[in-house]
Amino acid sequence: MKRLAVALAIAGAFVTGARALESGMNSSALAHELDRVAHTGRVLYVAAHPDDENTRLLGYLANNRHLMAAYLSMTRGGGGQNLIGPEQGVLLDVIRNEELLAARRIDGAVQRFTRMRDFGYSKSAAETLTLWNHDEALADVVWAIRSFQPDIVIVRFDEEPPNHGHHTASAILAREAFAAAADPKRFPEQLTNGVAPWQADRLLRNLSTWSDEPIPADAIPLEVGVYDSRLGLSYGELAAQSRSQHKSQGFGVPGDRKPVTERFVWIAGTKPTKDLFEGLDLGWSRFGERAAPLTKAFDEARAALDRDRPERALPALLAAHRAFDALPDVPRVRDAKQRLDRVICLAAGVFVRATSETPVVVPGGELKLSIEVVMRQPVSITLQRVLLPQGPPIEAGTLLVAGTPTLLVKKVPVPFEAGIAAPFWLEAAPMAGHYVVNDQRMVAEPSSPPAVSVAVELKFDDRTVMLREPVLHSWTDPVQGERLRSLMIVPPATVTPSREAVMFPNGQSTKVALRVRAGRDELKGEVSLPVPAGWKVEPATVAVTLARGGDETTVEFAVTPPAGAKPSVTSPLFSADGRKWSYREDRIDYTHIPFQLVLQPATMKLVPLTLTLPQGAVGYIRGSGDSVADDLAHVGLHVEVLDDEFLRSGDLSRFAAIVVGIRAYNTRDVVRAAHSRLMKFVEDGGTVVVQYNTNNRLARMDASLGPFPLEIGRDRVTDENAVMTVLKPESAALNTPNRIVAADFDGWVQERGIYFATKWDPRYEPLFSAADPDEKPALGSTLLARHGKGHYVYTGLAFFRQLPAGVPGAYRLFVNLIAGH
Fold it and tell me: What is the pLDDT of residue 210?
């Protein structure tokens, strides 16, 4: 992919947690950043998912010890659940990716990933390493170590079961990579991409503070709950702010001001006895005598950095800039030089912003760029030039005046061959266990480089400092004020299917809706929907004309499968100017993370199924975010979503059944308050189907879920192909209106189910028995009870995943549960 970035190094270019979409630091943050540049120590913390990291430790290392601390998450976390919205899978990966970056902006650490996918809860490291592909996963951790060059590697988890398989696998891989990263014979292809073998000094494990694990006598203590006067927070308070960015998981936590001792056990390498870093040179003196002027300059800069007059440190900072010339061109030096450039500019109060009039641009289009540069301290700086993504630079040669912005405006053409700004890990179709990333240098990166960037050269005395800035789009929200988003290169139009899977009940024709959004003004083209041989689609094409970029319309095709049709996958196309495009777009807009426009190849499933529907309307009570109501309506059920007021006082009797969405009892007070009304609805002859709710140490389930005592546990079946043994074949739930057979459990995705019932009143009847390999069968996936004249169902089966994925048997079974008997 060709991105219009200027002089942007990829491997080894670390952006600190203090920086978001553009630069800006107060004096305290600037002091911390200068201290980090003045040190060379690096720590790589390795675990499996977003939220596994020890935010208190990371904050302590980055701000108290002033080390470059990085969290390597094996996955982006998309296999979990979403508490704040409907996004699942890939889009949840995007959200949790951004939540980790938001956390790092608070605690001062940096973020890294591997290509591995979160495929849901795993009960063994063996399963995880098989699905991830052990060697692929190991290569990624080796790359992370070689490109980051940590002094210490710390693992969060041990290698002993029972534990989440992703957790234990992360510890195994970190141990293996600790040795393999130093061996030039292991993964030698990496050595052609700017890295060298690297031997970290030591490998440690961070003992958990929440478990009853005995503390070994030789465990190394580290007090991390101390107070940071620059931040005005203890690291427990800082960690709470950081961890509370994991909002999609509901991991908001209170600030903690008490002393906290973290403990570590040695695994490999040199063995410390009192302090994690004893015996390690964490300063620039590791480069020998030639680094002495640099060390001296940094000492002087830190002494001169004044809270109110940070520019007083500039002479020493520029001396450090000169001293770097004597050091070798290795990752630590390259990274520090880039960070020092930014520290120099921040000490001088320099603000740089590059913006585009529009939020998107298409290949072959034109950008109108505005570059604003302002110096806000009384120093002498010359704006030399601005390097543009295309064409010659803007030669400025302007002496900046304190407090007076300099504005440069330039039109820049975008080449026809410019790449579409899809996340790099979504550019190719993923494998079952990991994403496909073709550029080795991107493997550990959290995000793609900016789609378009500029570089601003500033002259301080005899030194040229360069700031590389992404091109942004700015707009004003009437509630949130000024907002920023990254400029993106988009196709002339996106064609976004309204559904991931379109169902065709009983061979009938179904309308397929596509949302077409223009990426440019005066858009003219046509949309088509290729279908397999034997299928019919009408019309063959739909002409689209949209006046302005951002305008959208919906087009529909009537698609009819032939008799005996099998499920297939299609990609809708937009054609214009002799080219074809097939991209979907999804917008993710939450206040705790930057706005995300996610582009990825547009695909959709076409799925025939045999289905008989029950009579009557279905009420749906939304939970923490799922598409089940829409999925049921899609196959022909009359579904009404019930709001809070209706739950309090509406006439429930007009529904044949009411379905409660995932985690509704966990997340909505009104649902718990309406429980007695729902049970009265059952008693009077209705059917209530309650989907899974959680019950754990973070979210205790203390509300009644059914008409009789029922306790939810953490039992689950993670093997999506596990045999579902029927316990009561004559049950109407398995026979009316659809006869459920073994084939109805084919093609399920990610898991059979989660949060099964573990204890229940004998008036409930379990419908299935299922188990993961080498485990005892679990009976609590689906419980049925007769109550009065009606029927109640609790199910932990993962219908919220299966229905949008287009699993025919899941539709048939869920419809049966709704039918009541």
Answer: 74
